[in-house]
Amino acid sequence: MIDKNKFLAALFTVFLITIGITCNIQAAQAKDVRIIVLSLNGDSSGDFSYLTDSIRTMLSTRLAVKEGIEVVDKVLTADEIILLNKDDMEDGEYLQVLHNLNTDYLVSGALYSLQTGLKIQINVAGKDIAASGGGTFTSLAVSEDHILESVEHLVEDIAVRALGVSDRSPVVAANVSSGSTGIEAFSTEHPEKVFKKGVYGGSITAEDGIAVRSLGVRKSSDLPSMLVSMASADLNGDGNLEVVAASRTAVEIFRFDDTRFVKLGEYAFPKNYKIHAVNVADLDGNGNVEIYVSGNKGKSVASAIFSWDAATGLNPLLTDIDWYIRPMVQPGVGAILAGQRGNSDPRRGYVGEKIVSLELNEGLTAVEERGDLALPRNIRLFDFIWADLDGNGSSEIVAIDSREKLLVYDSSNSLMYVSERNYGGSRNFFGPAQSATTSMRDMAGKEDSAKAERQMHYIPTRLLTADLNGDGKQEIIVANNERTTPMAMVNFREYDGGKVVGLSWNETEMVEVWQTNKIEGYIADYNFLDSVHSSSRSLSGDSVSALYISQIPDKHLLGLSMRSKSKLLRYVLDLVEQE
After folding, report:
1. Quick check: helix, strand or coil at residue 274?
2. What integer is the mean pLDDT of 207-235?
3. In the chain, how long is the greatest CA-to-CA distance?
4. DSSP-based three-state secondary structure for 46
5. Which of 382, 396, 305 is nearest to 340 (CA)?
């Protein structure tokens, strides 16, 4: 049980001592590295939530006593927060923001209440916007009595490896490649990393013993649209596999015939429509797979359900559904339609609170709410998936949080694990397009304050489960888009290349066991299908599976691309049963 009075009294004593030392040091010499410690995210801090502000204070005061560091004691104004969280920013403009804030580095972070204690993750972003997505530092306090010690370790690690201003050795040795500079030179080596040994087929890298290899990759020609989501299934039961690809305002159907992707049909929504997810499932049990589109029409939620027929094309079964929708498989229940309400307030990110199970009435003419889903706090509709990670018949919840960390909860919704590395990074978000709600005058706070203060709720890339090696444990398939913008910029994300990775639970943590080659640009979505038809022969004689990936090849600037195009990739995978 946490003794709050005991801890806060100790914290106050440390604070007073630190302030005195800080004053003496500041009188003796000027600081040369300026930092601002921003508010920490306490969404997953559980019983430690009362420490969120206190730990920020501890970080600030302990960093301030380090020789060569000046902590800028500044509370950001509403206009400065708006400017920092702009949805488009060039390198020079970001440097100007740092200059205006009188700082060289921004320190942000989050607290996670794990079964093993309190995990503190800190991110340091500096002057080089192109490299400042890294710089993550972590400490675990196994009990209340170890929190002060953990913060001290973090401070020393940050001072040595991020700011380069201490003579003491870092708590965790730096992993710096020759010639590395800036933020990329002090990214913490994440402890769950495993060395990848053996490259199979030139496009999948796997750990020794993992039963996956690539037999080849097919790429489509350029598709004249920016895809945001995709799904794959035999939509009408004719034995042929279709790929459902969604851009911002349209749904398209493709078929891969082992030589190329062929477009079969399209449905276009109005110009003010914005799709953020497309999924497929047969929830009415008629043997045909329906297409579930989750999206907004302006500020309003307006999802839709379609059927596909080779003769008549895409047919809308139900439109203007006032729920964000997602078909899922719930343990012990089976296939369900999960939903989440929206709202019209930009400051709430256009998303409501609870996630529920919905029921489709006969004929798919309406949906009705059935009941709440028992999920951890602060999880939204597309953030999570159920998976049996250890093969014991009980499902865990795997989720991606707002800081792109992968979380694992046990069956009682207790947080067991949080990743060091980022996963699920995405530019996809709830609500209307930013251009429809935010002007430059809005961002300067001159017009609608609600629009200017918009809270972006990003939708992570897809979480998938698969048992690739037949050991009864489900692996997680997720994207690892490489972020180039600082974590402190919560409303602006850019990426430069990425991979799709396979993660496996190893008693206490998730480890990467295979990954694709680096895919240029940005990975928008992907889908894994087991035992699909392919003209490629399996080298082992076992089942052949496929990984479909939606790629945006161009590197983006200011959230825009000079060319609106996408590609579909098809990796043919050879899966070998584990001996």
Report:
1. strand
2. 79
3. 82
4. helix
5. 382
Distance of alpha carbon 351 from alpha carbon 340, whole angstroms: 8
- Nearest residue to 428 via CA among 276, 302, 278: 276
pLDDT for 455-467, tens place per residue?
899 999 999 999 8
Q: What is the pLDDT of residues 315-370, one digit of tens each?
A: 999 999 999 999 999 999 999 999 999 998 998 999 998 999 999 988 778 899 99
Q: What does the alpha-carbon distance between residue 159 and residue 161 come to, in Å, rounded to a whole number?
A: 6
| Single-letter residue type at 95 | L
Give the residue carrying structure tokens 């015939």. Answer: 257
Query: Which one, of 576, 514, 516, lies nearest residue 549 by Cα?
Result: 516
Q: Which residues contact 454 (CB under 8 A, 6 or more apart)?
A: 346, 347, 349, 431, 434, 437, 438, 491
What are the respective helix, strand and coil percentages of the chain, to the nearest 5? 15, 40, 45
535 CB burial (10 A radius; 0-12, 13-18, 19+):
exposed
Let me know: does 214 contact 203? Beta carbons within 8 Å.
yes
Confidence of residue 481 (pLDDT cuts 50, 70, 90): very high
Nearest to 357 by CA among 302, 410, 409, 283: 283
> CA 213, CA 515: separation in Å to the nearest integer?
10
